[in-house]
Amino acid sequence: MTRVLILCTHNSARSQMAEGLTRRAAQRLGLDLEVFSAGTEATRVKEDAATVMAEIGVDLGTHRSKTLHDVPDPWNFEYVVTVCDSAAEACPTYPARTTRRHYPFVDPSGGSLERWRAVRDQLDLQFVSFVEALRDGRPVPDSYEDSPAVSVA
């Protein structure tokens, strides 16, 4: 089973949404993935994240904000994906073979639900592309801009 870790600063919004979306994509595409998210600090899952995810049938109700040390076997991931610049800078060096990717997304915190939806939809496109690449045996996109499914315009 392939293990994926998605990191952000507080594990309260982008990484939580990406975790749920990646799990959903893997399930839909028949790929056996173990997906976790964590932050460099733990806070709480933001209500707006849960709201916009529920709109598309992804439940974050059981999710909680956590740090890397709250994740099972934290040093054994095939892929570590950061979704904010702060987490990318603070991301630790992994002793095991790990492929790191950085897909920076705008922080929707403090914005309207439309902003939250836009970030959710961008995350969905990116992580579906990520999961499709894994399923097809292709290299995962190096960056957000390299993903064929995502338009950054």
Outline the structure in words:
By secondary structure, the protein is an alpha/beta fold. The chain has a single domain (2-146), classed as Rossmann fold, CATH 3.40.50. The protein is 35% helix and 14% strand. It is built from four helices and four strands. The chain has helices spanning 14-29, 47-54, 85-90, 113-136, and strands at residues 2-8, 33-39, 79-82, 99-102. Helix 2 packs across helix 4. The protein starts with a strand and ends in a 17-residue tail after the last helix.
Q: Report the sheet-strand fraction.
A: 5-15%
> Gyration radius, to the nearest Å?
14 Å
Helix content: 25-40%
Total strand segments: 4
Assign an overall shape.
globular
Spans with pLDDT under 50 lasting ≥5 residues? none
Order of helices and strands: EHEHEHEH
Which class do the helix and strand fractions yield? alpha/beta
CATH fold-level assignment: Rossmann fold
CATH level-four homologous superfamily name:
Response regulator
Mean pLDDT over the full residue set: 90
Order of the strands making up the biggest sheet:
2-1-3-4
What is the top-level CATH class? Alpha Beta
Largest β sheet strand count, sense and barrel closure: 4 strands, parallel
Total domain units: 1
Features:
4 helices; 4 strands; Rossmann fold; alpha/beta; globular; single chain; 35% helix; 153 residues
Topology record:
Blueprint: E1 2-8, H1 14-29, E2 33-39, H2 47-54, E3 79-82, H3 85-90, E4 99-102, H4 113-136
Parallel strand pairs: 1-2, 1-3, 3-4
Helix pairs in contact: 1-4, 2-4
Task: Give a summary of the structure in a few sentences.
The chain is an alpha/beta fold. The protein has helices at residues 14-29, 47-54, 85-90, 113-136, and strands spanning 2-8, 33-39, 79-82, 99-102.
